[in-house]
Amino acid sequence: MSALKPSASCSRSPALLELSAVQLAQLIKRKEISPVELVEQSIERCQEIQALCNPIAVELYRCARSAARRAQADVLRGQPLGRLHGVPFSIKEGLGLAGWPQTCGSTLRRQVTASSTATVAQRLISAGGIPVALGNQAEMALWPETDNLLYGRTLNPYRASRTAGGSSGGDAVMVASACVPFALGTDGAGSVRIPAAFNGVFGLKPSRGLVPLSGHLPLDERGRQQANAQAVSAHFAAGPLCRHAEDLSEVLQIIAGPDGIDRNIHSRYAPAAEPARLRRVHLYLPDKMKWSSPVSEAVAQALNDAGQCLASQGATLHAWQEPGMHNAFFIWLAVLKLEAQVRLADYLGDGQPLSYWRAARASLAGRARHATGPLLATWLDSVGDALGNPGLGRFLAQRDHLQRAFAELFDGHSLLLMPVTPGVAPKHGHALKRPLDVAYCALFNALGLPALSVPMGRLDQGCPVAVQLVAGPGQDALLLDAAVFLETQFGGWLKPAFSHFKG
After folding, report:
1. Of 83, 159, 161, 345, whose CB neighbour count within 10 A is largest?
2. What sequence ranges are listed for the domain Amidase (predicted)?
3. Closest CA to 93 of 114, 120, 67
4. Quick count: other Cβ atoms within 10 Å of Cβ 302?
5. Rounded to two decimals, what is the model's pTM?
6. If you average pLDDT over each of 214-223, 252-261, 376-385, which comes out highest?
7. Do the bridges between strand 182-187 and strand 88-92 make them parallel or antiparallel, or are there none, so unpaired?
């Protein structure tokens, strides 16, 4: 078995590694490429990109090479092969891989290792996938940028001065840079979709009840004993980041389904018997969010182009005005605070009391223990707790109204088309100024609807442009079929040139 040789230049990704996971698995099964050669190329690419962008928290290279040798032996012996046999992938560090660090980017957890493997990761390993790295993330998954005091900042591969997004930013960068064809992240307010958009790949937050969060906070070994762990996890989801749309369905079929740990999970996933008939689709275009940044011209144009393209296939376009959408961020916040009883300080302090005065003094003395963004978010959250979160209760009524409106809207043939964020990847630190820009994503965590970031095959300010599709509960297959179509029309992922890293 032979494989293509990796490129020595980061400006042109190795051709083999640019293929989809589905294609790579087929080549392995046909004995046209070797798992050993494929994983070795993946590792070499990871090493190149790590030096440039710092997307990797933990290297798994030695174990990956051993797994690749076993995978190759199984191929040569004619053993039954899993759906992704021999295909490399990455996992968000906070998801948990038994025996490996699970710090979640926190200095307080520097010595913590996972005692078990996250359900979604184990299912992919059982299907033959080979983890090669654990991706860097925002501290305790509490910020939409990937930067922490333990592993450092992850840079966007398209422009080093721009954020990779978060909290699953490291894995998005590895997928975008052709280190791996797909990765596993988690999404509590856009933590898969935002980095997917900023790095020009597909990122799915599945329907509530479909994919277990088991292994990730709060459903790790210690956290799942907390009284509100199941309630909190209902608003989070593990989900795939993929360079090619066809991999979304393949990965989702493997990772979905109950596991007996995450009690929110009650469904399995199967792709539609036939691709969605887009001519029957009703496509709704909501108003812009009131409290976030203005939508950029590039994103507005991408939304228009995607809508017109779907309309050319017979989809019916509808402008959709729903006042409750303007308060998306506050609806999400109210659900987490008043129903799930979330206290961010419990997470940032890793279960121990968090003193903001002590944290501020340590930062001023150059001995910071927390990244600025998560610390600020936690402080604001604590102020709200101290004040009793005045006025938040009214947003639960707005959530209920929105749920009724969406129940009428989504009939199995309906989609929302809207931004993932108002613009392309901003400069590092932007979220400190405009934290409410996550509202376009966060609302659908509160409502439990499936939502997908779709790259549009174009750049603005050197960074990828994306749109977001949202479907009704359990209608993930409709989303994925629409994504495959849009990829064929607009090109999807674009290779990062890395030219701005030179000189």
Report:
1. 159
2. 37-480
3. 114
4. 24
5. 0.95
6. 252-261
7. parallel
Q: Which two tokens stand for residue 107?
A: 């200095």
Task: Please say if the pLDDT value at position 409 is more than 50.
Answer: yes
pLDDT for res 2: 41
Give residues with Cβ within 8 angstroms of 200, minimum separation 6.
158, 176, 455, 463, 464, 466, 493, 494, 496
Place of tokens 């182009």: 305
Give SS3 for 91.
Answer: strand
CA angle 343, 348, 351 (to 5 degrees): 75
pLDDT at 84 exceeding the cut of 80: yes
Q: Could you say which DSSP state residue 106 is in? A: -
Find tokens 């290792």 and name the residue. 113
Output the CA torsion sign for 215, 218, 223, 224.
Answer: negative
Among 333, 323, 332, residue whose Cα is nearest residue 286:
323
308 vs 105: CA distance, rounded Å? 42
| Residue 97 to residue 118: CA distance in whole angstroms | 6
Going by the DSSP 8-state scheme, the letter that residue 428 receives in this structure is T
Which CATH superfamily does the domain covering 16-259+282-489 fall into?
Amidase signature (AS) domain (3.90.1300.10)
Q: Which residues partner with 238 through β-bridges?
A: 186
> Which residues are part of the catalytic machinery?
92, 167, 191
**Mean predicted confidence (pLDDT) in 456-467:** 98
Is 477 in contact with 271 (CB distance < 8 Å)?
yes
Q: How far apart are CA 476 and CA 472, in angstroms?
A: 8
Tell which residue, 21, 481, 479, 474, has the closest CA to residue 269.
474
Q: Which long-range contacts (CB under 8 A, 24 or more apart) does 383-387 make?
A: 384/337, 385/337, 385/343
- Integer Cα distance of 278 and 116 in angstroms: 42
Evaluated on CA atoms 421, 422, 425, 428, the torsion sign reads negative
E strand or H helix that includes residue 56: strand 56-59
| CA pair distance 375, 69, nearest whole angstrom | 44
DSSP string, 462-496: TEEEEEEEE--TT-HHHHHHHHHHHHHHH------
Closest residue by Cα to residue 249 from 450, 404, 407: 450
Mean pLDDT confidence for 299-324: 95
Q: Which residue has the tokens 């095959």?
A: 457
- Cα 501 from Cα 172, distance rounded (Å): 18
With beta carbons less than 8 A apart as the criterion, state whether 324 and 331 touch: yes
Between 184 and 277, where is the model more confident?
184
Element (H, E) at 345: helix 344-348
Distances in Å between the Cα of 119 and the Cα atoms of 226, 260, 419 are 19, 10, 31
